[in-house]
Amino acid sequence: MASDTTAARSTTPAGRRRPLSSRTGLTVLAVVVSLISLFPVLWMLTSSFKTRETVTDGKLIPTDFTFDNFVYVFTEVPFARYLWNSFFTSAVITVVALFFHSMAAYALARLRFPGREKVFGAIFATLLVTAPVVLIPLFLVVRELGMLDSYAGLIIPAIFNAFGIFLLRQFYLGLPKELEEAAVIDGCGHWRVYWNIVLPMSRPILSALAIFFFLANWNAFVWPLVATSDQDLTVVQLGIASFQTQYTSNWNYILAAATIAALPMLILFFAFQRQIVESVKTSGLK
Questions:
Q1: Which residues does UniProt call coiled coil (predicted)?
Q2: Residue 248: predicted pLDDT
Q3: Which of 271, 256, 217 shows the shortest CA–CA distance to 86?
């Protein structure tokens, strides 16, 4: 009996240690993966403060710390103009896309009309078409409309995004219908239901989509390269690419420009990371 009691006591703590050890292992794995992911960003940040002679020395901490790279980027090239172009186009695309996507998603989720499922299927099918396939037809359409070398040519083709409509529709399908039905009984039409009830309840998912859309358009490279040739319309990613072509060996200037372009996205992410997590939980994505 004593031996059985001793064995039971010895196995119980061991059984309790297993969740702790597995949790510790997952924590260590998460830390390692995070460090691996953050290391290139940290290397870019520290190397942007190195001189041309030490930028490729293989050291993480700069030996000759300097701000001249950032001064050079803003004085020798119109990098501030590149940043403004990227910010303006990304902000306009994000706001307009969220407005139209939310309306389309609400109609596909709540309104009853003939061919609704076929319309949604056609929109969803565009996710299967890669961007290079539609690049030339899109360029021809934009050229025929006379929108090349203009902000309209950068903004309008990038507004539609089937992923945003799909994600918002799935989110709206999970909203309780009782609130909308009560508003309809009180005399509200579809527009007031959408504007006063659906949109306020969609803040988490809209915040996450806003970050995704802004980030995607901030990093846009192929379409601005095709649609514009005017230097006044150059976006930041094209500016970095042209800067690298012109100064192939001056990696200190290139890394400084890349750091400046990455900082707004990092600030945006850390400022709205709570909304991203909430959108993942409320939309059912795991």
A1: none
A2: 64
A3: 217
On the question of pLDDT at 193 being above 70, the answer is yes
Checking if the pLDDT of 93 tops 50, the result is yes
Mean pLDDT of the chain: 83
* Under 8 Å between Cβ of 35 and 43: no
Q: Tens digit of pLDDT for each residue in 8-32?
A: 444 444 445 455 567 888 888 888 8
Query: What single-letter amino acid sits at 256?
Result: A
With b meaning 16 or more CB within 10 Å and e meaning fewer, what string describes 269-284?
eeebeebbebbeebbe
User: Cβ(200)–Cβ(192) under 8 Å?
Assistant: no
* Residue in 108, 214, 105 with CA at minimum distance from that of residue 163: 105
With a CB cutoff of 8 Å and minimum separation 6, the contacts of 279 are 204, 205, 207, 208, 209
Tell me the H-state helices in the chain.
2-47, 68-76, 79-110, 116-125, 131-144, 151-155, 162-173, 177-185, 190-193, 199-201, 203-218, 222-227, 236-246, 251-271, 273-283
Average of per-residue pLDDT across 220-248: 84
**Cα–Cα distance, 58 to 130 (Å, whole number):** 38
Task: Tell which residue, 163, 161, 137, has the closest CA to residue 226.
Answer: 137
- Global pTM exceeds 0.90: no
Measured CA to CA, the distance from residue 214 to residue 236 in angstroms comes to: 13
Half-sphere exposure of 208 (CA within 13 A, CB side): 19
Got the DSSP string for 33-72?
HHHHHHHHHHHHHHHTTS-TTTTTS--SS-SS--SHHHHH
The pLDDT value recorded for residue 286 is 39
Tens-digit pLDDT profile for residues 102-128: 999 999 998 888 988 999 999 989 888
